[in-house]
Amino acid sequence: MSKQAMIYKRVLIAGAGIGGMALATALARRGIEVQVVERRQQASAIGVGIIQHCNAVRVLQSLSLLQDCQAAGFQADERRYHDESGKLIVSAYSARSLGPDIPAFHNVPRVALQGILERAALEAGTQLRTGDSIVAITQDSEGVDVAFGSGASARYDLVVGADGIRSGLRRLLFGNEWEPQFTGFGFWRVTVPRLPNLDFMGMYHGSNSTKAGLVPLTGETMYLFLVSNEPANVQMDPASHLRVLREYLAPYGGDVGAVRDMLNASHEIVYSPAEQVLLPQPWYVGRALLIGDAAHAGMPHLAQGAAMALEDAYVLDELVGRQLPAPVLMESFMQRRFERCLYSQRASLAIANSEQHSDFTALSKHHDHLRESLPGIWRSSDMKLGAQP
Ligand SMILES: Cc1cc2nc3c(=O)[nH]c(=O)nc-3n(C[C@H](O)[C@H](O)[C@H](O)COP(=O)(O)OP(=O)(O)OC[C@H]3O[C@@H](n4cnc5c(N)ncnc54)[C@H](O)[C@@H]3O)c2cc1C
């Protein structure tokens, strides 16, 4: 289609993260002029590793980026649940729903995923402006006028807020009442050398109401995570990270205990309070729309936040490609995305609550419950997530 006939010739995306760069790649490859404005000076990733289920993999495949991700990461099909001593409780395999040669999970260091997406977006012609953000937005039925913190201004056919859990565009469009809510959990992560036997995702249930995990990231590396119950939404002093994490890991034996014992001050331990964003629908005003964490950040238990941001980008690109007028495009997007993202948020929180708030005086009962329920929970979530968004 000639550029003249296109409804969306010029698109602005706020946020050069996972959803923003996936969308920029897809739209720029259509010949659309795409600008991305990123608040940070460098669009480098903060974080440790991303577990990617079949639905994230489907989007990467559609962008022809799957091979790059495979080369940068580690693939697996199995989750194994253990008690804190390392004894196996139950194992759950996920189906290879995208074909026999494509494993169920593609884990990748976050910085590698971000680099792959950023390269693809820039190669497709995306213009990336770092160190800037949107400060004002006005619109009419034909377009959106945007003013930037740098003093620049421009008009676009579509504006997309992919600016993450603390989205500035969300505030501009919907006010301050949809800020992230603390869930009562904290997440600890640290990258360490991969144990040679660790070619599955290992979960470990502690008797101190924590859950630990070991996730292979590359041939050489894996990350340890720990979920803790936390009384308040505070950023802890990084100087205390090693001590507090070691205390939480104290009851663990087996592989987790071995990793705990090798942790020292040279390891970069990342702590994040777990928050979610519960923005009711619609996630758009006129021609400005929120995607990814900006609209629906959730708990990491289902490992679906990045996947949902990627799916948002996939669906939005498809609707733009169909040249739907803005009101129809926005409504179609909400119909395709709202319930699915809500499912992901609710399922993640349900897993967190069931694992973390159990009566640990009856540990063996809890393990029986995990043994009976987990394979079924994952089968049904695999089926849901395997369906086309
Ligand atoms: C502990 C933890 C573990 C996780 N593990 C997984 C996992 O295994 N699998 C998975 O699928 N998901 C996981 N997630 C979720 C995942 O990280 C997020 O859901 C995902 O990054 C959201 O993508 P996004 O594009 O919406 O936002 P981000 O990737 O957060 O990108 C937002 C970008 O916008 C920029 N920005 C912010 N404000 C502005 C502004 N005002 N103007 C311009 N730019 C701005 C930011 O600097 C950033 O570059 C995890 C999350 C956490 C906390």
In short:
This protein has 389 residues and is α/β, with parallel strands linked by helices. It has helices at residues 18-29, 54-62, 66-72, 110-123, 168-174, 241-248, 254-262, 293-296, 305-321, 326-356, 363-386; strands at 10-14, 33-38, 49-50, 74-76, 78-83, 88-93, 105-109, 127-130, 134-140, 143-148, 153-156, 158-161, 181-193, 201-205, 211-216, 221-229, 270-276, 284-285, 288-290.
Specify the CATH homologous superfamily.
FAD/NAD(P)-binding domain
What number of domains?
Answer: 1
Please report the total strand number as a whole number. 19
Percent helix: 25-40%
> What is the arithmetic mean of pLDDT?
93
Corresponding CATH architecture: 3-Layer(bba) Sandwich
The rounded Rg comes to 21 Å
Q: Strand order of the main beta sheet, please?
A: 6-5-14-15-16-13-17
Roughly what fraction of the amino acids lie in strands? Answer: 25-35%
Distance separating the two termini: 25 Å
